[in-house]
Design a protein that fits this description.
Oligomer: single chain
Shape: globular
Helix content: 25-40%
CATH topology: Rossmann fold
Radius of gyration: 17 Å
Largest sheet: 5 strands, parallel
Structural class: alpha/beta
CATH architecture: 3-Layer(aba) Sandwich
Number of strands: 9
Length: 171
């Protein structure tokens, strides 16, 4: 049986704990006979990277966005010199994902692919804001989830899989 390609937006550099979380999601994809595709993880650019993302995504039937912390900010200003300026302090530190999550999500959304979005605690903004798209935003799984949590996660994947497989069948 041929696997259905799905685009996975995920940073290539992850901590050991983040990689465990990513692996849980990749294993669930493989259990459903889905082929994870991503720039820099099996697919490498022949042209400029943004164009390559589009080319890969165009041949996929769904997309997953994995919002892992890539930048941790303990000090600075948000909206500096603007109304609503906020000071970032160690007590109110912020976590930011890779900007590629937003670019890739926009491409996937523009291609009208079913999206599944996960984020680590503290990640917000752009595609990770609730109500920004029709995709529900899920919390990243624990690195060592128990059976009930895995079964819960499988239900989320099965619902999304139904949309992905109908998109694939429409090709």
């Amino acid at each position: 049986m041929r696997k259905i390609p799905v685009f996975v937006s995920c940073p290539t550099s992850l901590s050991a704990e983040q990689d465990k979380k990513r692996k849980i999601i990749i294993d669930l994809l493989e259990d459903l006979q889905l082929e994870p595709r991503a720039l820099g993880r099996g697919d490498y650019p022949k042209d400029f990277p943004l164009k390559e993302v589009y080319i890969i995504a165009k041949h996929c039937a769904g997309g997953i966005i994995l919002g892992f912390e890539q930048l941790y900010v303990e000090g600075g200003k948000r909206k500096r010199n603007c109304p609503g300026e906020k000071t970032i302090t160690p007590e109110k530190a912020i976590s930011l994902p890779t900007p590629w999550n937003h670019l890739e999500a926009g491409i996937l959304f523009g291609l009208k692919l079913p999206l599944l979005i996960f984020k680590e605690e503290g990640i917000e903004g752009g595609v990770f804001d609730y109500g920004i798209s029709d995709a529900f935003i899920h919390t990243m799984p624990d690195p060592d989830p128990g059976s009930p949590k895995i079964n819960e996660l499988k239900q989320v994947f099965l619902k999304w899989f139904a949309q992905v497989s109908s998109k694939y069948d429409a090709y």
